[in-house]
Design a protein that fits this description.
Layout: H1 2-9, H2 12-36, H3 49-74, H4 81-109, H5 116-136
Helix pairs in contact: 1-2, 2-3, 2-5, 3-4, 3-5, 4-5
Length: 137
């Protein structure tokens, strides 16, 4: 996964930090799942959520990189980094917010399933998607 992200971003720092923020969404989601919702049942299926969130988190990283490139091309040549960030940041945040909210809503909607492992997986994944978005900001 790191090799693919590195090939796309062309930045080792950005690739490593991007993958770390995806990994940090797991403990943050676990906190919401176990402490806030007080759910004790944590099936192995929830660990497979790491693979799902890796795809979602890397996609968010790609959105940020693309929005940065678009902002840099739309501004006059020689624009400084804070100016590019001021243009790219809100656009990327809104794009990721919309995709993250719809994905989290789809997972939370699956929580009505009567099968317990699927229900808690859906709740955990909903929290993990929201945590990933918050960590992307």
């Amino acid at each position: 996964s790191l090799v693919c992200v590195l090939a796309y971003t062309r930045s080792l720092f950005l690739s490593v930090v991007g993958l770390l923020q995806v990994c940090f969404s797991f403990p943050l989601a676990f906190f919401c799942y176990s402490i806030v919702c007080r759910l004790d049942f944590f099936p192995f299926l929830n660990f497979l959520g790491l693979f799902v969130i890796m795809g979602i988190g890397v996609d968010d990283l790609f959105v940020v990189v693309d929005k940065w490139s678009q902002a840099a091309r739309s501004l006059p040549p020689g624009s400084d980094v804070p100016t590019i960030a001021a243009v790219a940041g809100p656009d990327a945040a809104l794009t990721m917010l919309l995709t993250s909210l719809t994905t989290a809503a789809a997972f939370f909607a699956t929580a009505v399933v009567p099968v317990a492992p699927v229900r808690v997986f859906a709740i955990f994944m909903g929290f993990m998607v929201l945590a990933d978005y918050l960590l992307c900001l």
